[in-house]
UniProtKB/TrEMBL annotation:
The keyword Oxidoreductase applies. This is NAD(P)H-dependent oxidoreductase. It comes from Amycolatopsis melonis. Its EC number is 1.-.-.-. It comes from the Bacteria. The keyword DNA damage does not apply.
Amino acid sequence: MTSARTVNVLGIGGSLREGSQSEHALRIALDGAAEVGVRTSLLTGPELVLPFYDAGVPERDERATRLVEAIRQADGLIVVSPGYHGALSGLVKNALDYVEDLRDDRRPYLDGRAVGLAAVAYGWQAAVTTLEQLRTITHALRGWATPLGGSINSAETKFDEAGGASDEKSVRTLRLIGRQVAEFAVTRAA
């Protein structure tokens, strides 16, 4: 890492199912970011069970406050969602809605931050449409979606507990997404 300060990359996603395929994918992408020498952190599953986002209610519970502060401190993000019925999960969408709390920050929303994106679904159609929705949301939040995004068909690719997958191309893609986020963040910080 060439920056004088620590660069932070935050991973958000997964599902409520422990050891979900999307959480495994997120961890692999974060490993790719760590290879660049940045600090990584992760918010998944139960940590993302938040009240429905309501801009009219300024009070935040402990989990929502932790999420917003983690995003505020992040120099880059990696977001991985399962694809449910052709769309991102409500869990991930609600977490991303909380980015609205950063609207008045010095760096509003995701401004100036690279955001690596991947979708994991049982079938190509849901994986691709979910990734496209994640890209649209990232752009609306002023984030820089990395050039490479990941659409993973879990009918064909199975992740394992050792941090790998049955399809090495999927692992390489996810690691590259993580590296792209980290390299962008390090360059911005320099």
